[in-house]
Specification:
The complex is a heterodimer of chains A (131) and B (533).
Chain A: E1 6-10, H1 19-30, E2 34-37, H2 44-54, E3 58-63, H3 68-81, E4 88-93, H4 97-105, E5 110-112, H5 118-128
Helix pairs in contact in A: 2-3
Chain B: H1 32-35, E1 59-60, E2 63-64, H2 69-81, E3 86-90, H3 93-96, H4 120-126, E4 136-140, H5 145-159, E5 168-170, H6 175-181, H7 188-205, E6 209-210, E7 212-215, H8 217-221, H9 226-246, H10 251-254, E8 258-264, H11 268-289, H12 295-298, E9 302-306, H13 318-332, E10 337-339, H14 352-367, H15 382-405, H16 408-413, H17 416-434, H18 462-476, H19 479-494, H20 500-508, H21 513-524
Parallel strand pairs in B: 1-10, 2-3, 3-4, 4-5, 5-6, 7-8, 8-9, 9-10
The chains are: A alpha/beta (131), B alpha/beta (533).
Chain lengths: 131, 533
């Protein structure tokens, strides 16, 4: 049996609205994955360190405050520096289309905008990690 | 897509089962003398005023703030010209968390979710040309509320507006931050001391100002049910009353200035029942539990805001319709002031065009719909009265459980309300996934093509602009006076004195928000929650 997929769900920035992050964390857990939730107000450094220590295959970032253009590129940069480019990064939250395209160009695997279904997100995480 | 209604369970959006029809047989336990007294009569189930909106319409108060104080000041002037009757300040995340615009953690966040205010100078700019003696101002600020309120009071002082005539509200509800919104700085007990300081200061110096707006809004946005929103909010209110009594205040000296803030969600009758039950429970709590004798202490006054979490990114014009239904529920439920969300708020802060439609929505309800002519127009409906009784008893059960845990702080420390909300939020999301709950345009009735809407862009230079002003301020002010005022504040915080006079002194010396909060962080420490999924 293959070991479960390990996912870090992280909430960067100053925003405390964690409803979405918690729902995603539960949905991934209910789908059989091992989920580590960082809690609030994580810097990109803290997130990447947690991803390293927890040896996750996927990082999910939840951002609703509009600070994604400052936060996500820094996470991607740190992953490269630490030789962790194989870790998939997905972003969920209020991310305008133009920004979503930009983030994908920087290596983000997927951006889930408001209204995305849990099923869609769970399926994506499953398919993005090699069995 | 074809949507079948046959298989779906008939429940409210909070999951409460609904019968196909309600009649007198469902109201056998209704006692009209207890449950259906007239508007303006204890326990105010039907409204706090005898004539309700005939006497005075609700205050149309659009929450707004973005980018710099200069830009927000221009928006305020515009809203007042358009007939808005009160202001409501939205602050950005660094301000809400007690950081200056030039702090490292403010990177990327300045002016994004509200206006950036780091010093008295910014607050002076925000209200330039707006006479604080004439306009009522609500400020959505919690952890650092005492500091922002002090800035406001000093601006009023400089405008020559007497404090005792100022009318407005600071949200200042820290308990719901630990429960739901998570914008906390200090641990719960020192935070409660700061809140109590403002309630005490307000009772003495600003008799027409509401020093707190006890808020269910954010609890609901975090995914609670209507009953949880109601129960946790009222239990928070009880906690604030207990702390103020402990401080030595007489209940009738501060209770008339406690105000509330509820969500106006999409389930029309459930929401109206919630507001009616809220008034009824609070009146009984104040009279019977706390022995208040002033009628004003018994009356629950509330602001309502339509549900931000109900707005969809898909087919955004539908949001105008959602907001209209929600606003109508708030009005039928007897709100004292109302914010209607704008159609574009699933994307960003609202554009001027969108916010104007939102304001017009309230004006149409007020002046065209006819619902304001009679008080509590739905009172006596079998369905609504049943829902009101059930909402009341379910909320009382929660309040009793939290009492048994030793109060709200003890409940928060064991994650009780947080867990209840997270469970409800997940259950709702699963119901949406199953198609048991329909969201038009999202899990049903999707469109292939959607026209882009105009979105407000925040100038990325806002941060630089604010940081530049702060740098200039830090050199031009009397820094000796700043240090002395912060030292005095630290000493007061270590003791038991009311901190408000010391915060006011620091603000007058142009100490910044971040500096004042740092002084308090040194004494009180910072709060970290145990992350719970």
């Amino acid at each position: 049996m293959t070991p479960p997929i390990r996912v870090l769900v992280a909430k960067p920035g100053l925003d405390g609205h964690d409803r979405g992050a918690k729902i995603i964390a539960r949905a991934l857990r209910d789908a059989g994955m091992e989920v580590i939730y960082t809690g609030l107000r994580q810097t990109p450094e803290m997130i990447v360190n947690a991803a390293l220590q927890e040896d996750v295959q996927v990082i999910g970032l939840s951002i609703l405050s509009g600070a994604h253009n400052a936060i996500v590129p820094r996470v991607m940069e740190l992953l490269h520096e630490k030789d962790m480019a194989n870790v998939k990064v997905i972003v969920g939250g209020i991310i305008p289309d133009e920004d979503a395209a930009d983030l994908k160009r920087q290596g983000v695997a997927a951006v889930f905008q408001p209204g995305a279904s849990l099923e869609e997100i769970v399926d994506f995480v499953r398919s993005s990690v090699p069995a | 897509m074809k949507v079948s209604t046959a298989a779906r369970p008939f429940t409210t959006i909070s999951g409460v089962p609904i019968e196909p029809l309600y009649g007198p047989e469902q109201l056998a336990d209704l006692d009209p003398a207890r449950d259906l007294t007239g508007p303006g009569q204890f326990p105010y189930t039907r409204g706090i005023h005898e004539t309700m909106y005939r006497g005075k319409l609700w205050t149309m108060r659009q929450f707004s703030g973005f980018a710099t104080p200069e830009e927000t000041n221009r928006r305020y002037q515009y809203l007042l010209e358009q007939g808005q009757t009160g202001l409501s300040v939205a602050f950005d995340l660094p301000t809400l968390m007690g950081y200056d615009a030039d702090h490292a953690l403010a990177e990327g966040e300045v002016g994004k979710c509200g206006v950036a205010i780091s010093s008295l100078e910014d607050m002076e700019t925000l209200f330039r040309g707006i006479p604080l003696s004439d306009v009522t101002v609500s400020m959505t600020i919690n952890s650092p509320a005492a500091v922002l309120w002090a800035m406001y009071l000093v601006v009023a002082e400089k405008q020559g507006a007497a404090w005792e005539k100022l009318s407005g509200t600071i949200q200042n509800d820290i308990l719901k931050e630990y429960i739901a919104q998570k914008e906390y700085i200090f641990p719960p007990r020192p935070s409660m001391r700061l809140v109590t300081d403002t309630i005490e200061f307000s009772a003495r110096h600003t008799p027409r100002f509401n020093p707190i707006s006890i808020s269910g809004y954010h609890i609901r946005e975090a995914g609670s049910t209507a009953v949880q929103e109601l129960a946790f909010t009222l239990r928070d209110g009880i906690e604030y009353v207990e702390w103020a009594l402990e401080r030595g205040l007489a209940v009738d000296d501060f209770a008339p200035r406690l105000s509330f803030f509820f969500n106006a969600h999409s389930d029309f009758f459930e929401e109206i029942a919630k507001y009616r039950a809220a008034r009824k429970i609070w009146a009984n709590v104040m009279r019977d539990r706390f022995g208040a004798t002033d009628e004003r202490s018994w009356k629950l006054r509330f602001h309502a805001q339509t549900a931000g979490c109900s707005l969809t990114w898909q087919q955004p014009y539908n949001n105008i319709v959602r907001t209209t239904i929600q606003a109508l529920a708030a009005v039928m439920g007897g709100c004292q002031s109302l914010h209607t969300n704008s159609l574009d708020e699933a994307y960003a802060l609202p554009s001027e065009h969108a916010v104007t439609i939102a304001l017009r929505t309230q004006q149409v309800i007020a002046h065209e719909s006819g619902v304001t002519a009679a008080a509590d127009p739905l009172g006596g409906s079998y369905f609504l009265e049943r829902l009101t009784l059930d909402t009341e008893s379910a909320a009382r059960d929660y309040i009793r459980r939290i009492d048994e845990m030793g109060g709200m702080i003890a409940a928060i420390e064991t994650n009780f309300p947080q867990r209840e909300i997270a469970n409800a939020s997940y259950e709702y999301q699963k119901a949406v996934e199953r198609g048991d709950k329909i969201i038009v345009g999202v899990n049903a009735f999707q469109s292939d093509h959607e026209d882009a809407i105009e979105i407000l862009q925040i100038d990325p230079l806002a941060q630089k602009h604010q940081a530049g002003k702060l740098a200039a301020l830090r050199t031009s002010r009397n820094n000796g006076r700043v240090r002395a005022s912060l030292d005095a504040l630290r000493r007061a915080a270590e003791g038991t004195e009311n901190t408000m006079p010391f915060i006011l002194d620091a603000v007058r010396a142009y100490a910044t928000l971040g500096e004042i909060c740092d002084a308090l962080r040194e004494v009180f420490g910072s709060h970290q929650e145990t992350s719970l999924v």
